[in-house]
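step: validate -> pass
step: tokenize input -> pass
step: predict -> running
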Amino acid sequence: MKNLIIFILAIFAFAPLANAQSNQRDNYTVRVDGLGCPFCAYGLEKKFKDFKGIKDVKIAMETGVFTFSYPADKPLSIERVEKQVELAGYTPVSTEITRVDGSLETSGTELVADNQTGVVSLSSSKMFVAGNCEMCQARIEKAALKVNGINQASWNVATKMLSVDFDTTATSEMAIAEAIATVGHDTEFIQAKDSKYEKLPACCLYRK
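step: predict -> pass
step: emit ->
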């Protein structure tokens, strides 16, 4: 009987600690390309309900930013989150995870050094890229960041200028422009094919 009492007291002693741990949550921020309407947002949210315990779901249609929280004792990886976005039929642009311990995890692109010298030669450049909105921004930046050797890419909605930092031994302005044209956006160097442009969401159609 004495041992039983001790066992019960131990359960009650550890219960608050277990509850506190289960209540801790990691925060996720995903930029998603392709959310053209409320129905799209609903489809994305529905797919993520496969993750039991997801809460605080918010989707900003104008920016394509999708945020949610998830139990820290069941951590999701960046790869798992982005795979779920793809299963919903959309394209993940970037993912940021803030863990309960304060650590930050982000998806990104690494620079590739020259095979012979091991040196990365960085250059900064700006180019005009046509577009309308934050969804365009996400698409343009993602296309640029996919180019081997790109370190940073930032498109300004107001000025329509894309700022890039890249390894000149690995890529060039023309290669970056070609990559952006393949997702439907004209640049000062290359005009996107009509077949690519016409696939853009209605809010992103910039040609008059």
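step: describe -> The chain has a mean pLDDT of 83.
step: cleanup -> pass
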